[in-house]
Amino acid sequence: MIIGHRDTQFNSLKRLKKGDLIEVKTRHKRKQFKVTTLRIALNLQLNYIQSKNYNDTFDVEQSSLTLVTCYPFDSVLPNPIHRFMVRATAT
């Protein structure tokens, strides 16, 4: 799981569609993931998912990718209760 800010690094997530490709680059590797699910979840749901799957490092060899940011994208209020989640599988 990679978490980023909705108004900076992850602002482009709002343009993703199911089937789009995401390329992840590390210092030594590149890997593509295909978007399978776009979902809006409550912050509490994310906390549960994160507690069951949390890993503080990203391994490019993983077969799936989860990207998360705050939602809605254009909100001016801090700390919204919703999260936008993107799930993708390795191609």
UniProtKB/TrEMBL annotation:
Q: Which Gene Ontology MF annotations are present?
A: hydrolase activity
Entry keyword annotation includes Hydrolase: yes
The UniProt entry, under SUPFAM superfamilies, shows: Sortase
The identity of this protein, by name, is Sortase family protein
Kindly state which keywords UniProt assigns to this record, in alphabetical order.
Hydrolase
Instruction: Return the InterPro entries for the record.
Output: Sortase, Sortase_dom-sf
